[in-house]
Amino acid sequence: MQLTFFTQMFKRILRAPKLAALVTCIFFVAENFTELAIRYVPEINRLKKGIENCDRIPRINTFSIMCPFDNPGELTTNDTIILTYANSGWSQQVTNWICNAKKANISKLLVIAVNNDLCDKIGNIPGVKCWTPSLSPTFRSLREKALSDKVKENNVQNSFNASSNAEWGTENYGLLLKYRTLIIYSILKCGYPILLSDTDVIFLKSPLNYLQQLTHDNTSKADALNPRYEMIFQKDATGWRRFDSWGLKGWFGNWYACAGFAYIIPTPGIIKFWEGMVAFQESDWNDQVGVNLCLRYSSHRVRWMTLDSDLFPNGRMIQDGYRYNGKEYQSQAISQQNPYVIHFNWIHEFQGKIKYMKLMKLWCG
Fold it and tell me: Which CATH number fits domain 55-359: 3.40.50.970, 3.10.290.10, 3.90.550.10, 3.40.50.720?
């Protein structure tokens, strides 16, 4: 929206006396550059270190991490493993995620449970496998190695399996994301595509055929290790609205990727990419930052794209009113636009997510 920027500045000059116009312009420019500096200058060292970590070999022995399932094909729908990840504090969202997926005729689902209490809470649901990696000695060991020395010194590893909601940005939330990356890496070694979904994603209809057509460019899936795209992400917002309005139009490359909804093909390059993500998160919990840095700056170049926001709307759109054809989002508008999923990220507070889902009649947990 650079044109809008200069148009607004020009209008201010025309309306004000010369001196007032000059002062207005100075403050207008300073306001925007100050916002940029406040948000991004302190992050330079963090980003520089993160980019270096994308290409680093993890401290843990990733070669020992193999496919955790004897027969992963039993978990697949259309050759894809559809999974979410949570602790027992998110059991309500998990139940809602399962309910909406089943309403969308998605038949096989994998719930990765941080603690076994979650599997107990959701119970035995046909077509749903609940798996607790920490019950495996291998993953329990990997989890402990994934925790930083600072975390161990603070004795917070005991809260890692806690039944709290693990709100966004908390230390417990960061630990969950680090462990999730290890699990994703292991499941990719099963050789099946993954549809990774946060628990706050609502399925309105199955996106599998659509994603597979995008991945293979509407051609045969025979050449599975050489797809057109190796990863497909939902579009997300960066948090800085002006940058989003400029950068997300493709002026600076691909759109900002959401790490909480992704279709991933297990090519050798992708497995190497996620090994870099394991290394990135050994010093930084934020997988959203890691995914976007490693996609753009890692030497492990992968083919990726982002999805149409009208068909896969994200939480920023929900917060901003989520308008279709100039109308406020309503259940009637769903059928008009016909999206595949709605993602309630950007609503950080746990009960706030449920409130919005119920308001939009998308809660069936």
Answer: 3.90.550.10
